[in-house]
Structure formats: C-alpha cells, structure tokens
Amino acid sequence: MVRFTGRNFGKLLDAVCGTGDRLDVFRGHHFETHGVETSDSADYAKDHLKLNGVKGDLFSAPFPSQYFDAVTLCHVLEHTPDPLEVCREVHRILKEDGFLVIHVPNRDSLQYRIFKKRWAAFDVPRDLYYFGT
Asked: What is the reported pTM?
C-alpha cells in the first residue's frame, strides 16, 4: 500500500480478510488495520494476531461514513452477487482522498489466453463474475 499510495499510516480496511495476513503486514507499516470476514478465519485474526476484525460482511460492519484512508478488495468482487452494491458501500466508508485497491481475475489476461479452461483463477461455482480489461 505504501508503494501505491505514498502513505505509511492511516486507517485501512481489508474486506474479506481471511486469517488477517495482509492486515498483519499493513499493521507493520503503521496502518491502523481493520478487517471483515464471514468465515471462522475472523476468529483466528482476532484471537491470534490481535487484529481489529468484524465477523460478518461489509454491510453488517458498523463503519461510519468516510472512515478509511484505504480499502482493499482482494478477490472479493467475483464472489458477490452484486459487485456494484459492494463498491457503493466502499465509496461510503472511504475518505474522499482515500485509496481503493481491487484484485480480481482478469479474463483478458495472458494467463487466461494461454490456459483457457485450465486457467488457475477459475473458481467455479464460487465465482459469480469474471472481469476483463
């Protein structure tokens, strides 16, 4: 995040944070980290890494408007029934000068063109969308 934003501090949310590994890295770079996770991995992040985490989804988390300096959505949007709704909620909780980092599988990527049906990013039936450039 520091490389992309030029910032080495602020409030950061990792939506669908898993066990909190990314959050632990950002915390090491002086970010105040927060995570949202629907699975039991949220318990691990809270108990073992002592991270600020909410077990649930982005919409059930009690975040105020314009609270975060940065939000990461790493392989989230392809799994949600309404990616636009997720983006609207992120827009609400992200500061005006905040940064949003999105990672999604890209069906226009070189890997897809090479591997086609055997592309490692296919995660059927959990993936609901595939994005292109």
From this structure: 0.84
